Amino acid sequence: MPDLLQRLPELVMKSLEQKIFEGDWPPGTRLPPERQLSKDMDVSRNSLRDAIQRLVSRGLLETRQGSGTRVVEHPETSYQGKMEDLLISCPSLHKNTLDFRLLLESEAVKLATLYATEAQKTELVELAIALDKTFDNIDIEKDQQFHLKIAEYSGNPLIFHSLKQLGNLLTESIIDNTSALFARPEVLRHHRKRHLPIARAIQFGHCQRAAEAIKDHFVLFQDLLRDKQTGKYE
Predict the structure, then answer these.
(1) Which GO molecular function terms does the record list (predicted)?
(2) pLDDT at 23 over 90
């Protein structure tokens, strides 16, 4: 019970945060009176105040003299917490994962061509060959490992940790990508060897070719997922 009491403000904060990111409280919304909100949520006013203050610190709420507490105008860009918490709290951002990955990984492949050792480049090629051979089984773990290895061998810890922080969202992104690809057999046949061109470009030190290969890799999935979302195919 004491543990629950200690965690209560955190749980209340997450509940309020969800209301903001899911659109129940749009930007500019004035929060209900404290007494009413604590009653609606069945929590003490102290726990509610603590939760609200945490959201103010995270940049999601603002308190103005005489006008109460309101949701900020741009919650996604005002957010000052951890990125992984934002991704968990804001499902609408999931559709941006591919764009974010392309931004990071386009730079990662170019840096990897410059800074990866010969042994590391060989490892990437071997991993790509193994991954493409078993593509029919969708080896999610190997796929994730391939992309994280490129980020690691880029020599830029910020790129690596930014990609790694996506965590489960990275896994979900890979699953979405491969699911979209398997829904289009005619595309799958032409794109079965999708990792090896990236690894080979890195191996031979072709920065621009590596960047083009990773872009082609992601653009295909962006198109497929867009078709899926718009109902172009089921």
Answers:
(1) DNA binding; DNA-binding transcription factor activity
(2) no
Buried b (16+ CB within 10 A) or exposed e, 136-166: eeebeebbbebbbbbbbbbebeebbebbbeb
Please give the structure tokens belonging to residue 165: 């922080």
- Output the pLDDT for position 220: 74
User: Domain locations in the chain?
Assistant: 2-71, 79-230
State the maximum Cα–Cα separation within the chain, in Å, rounded to a whole number. Answer: 66
The C-alpha angle 31, 34, 37, rounded to 5 degrees, equals 70
Q: What CATH code would you report for 79-230?
A: 1.20.120.530
Of 107, 108, 121, residue with least CA distance to 204: 121
pTM, 2 dp: 0.66
- Flag the least confident range among 61-65, 68-72, 178-182: 178-182
DSSP state of 233: -
Highest mean pLDDT among 3-12, 66-75, 100-109, 113-122: 113-122
- Rounded Cα distance between 31 and 193, Å, is 53
Backbone angles phi, psi at 30, to 5 degrees: -85, 130
Between 68 and 76, whose confidence is greater? 68
Q: Give dist(CA 28, CA 97) in Å, integer.
A: 27
Rounded Cα distance, 69 and 34, in Å: 10
In words, the CATH class of domain 2-71 is mainly alpha
pLDDT of residue 65: 79
Say yes or no to pLDDT of 218 above 70: yes
SS3 28: coil
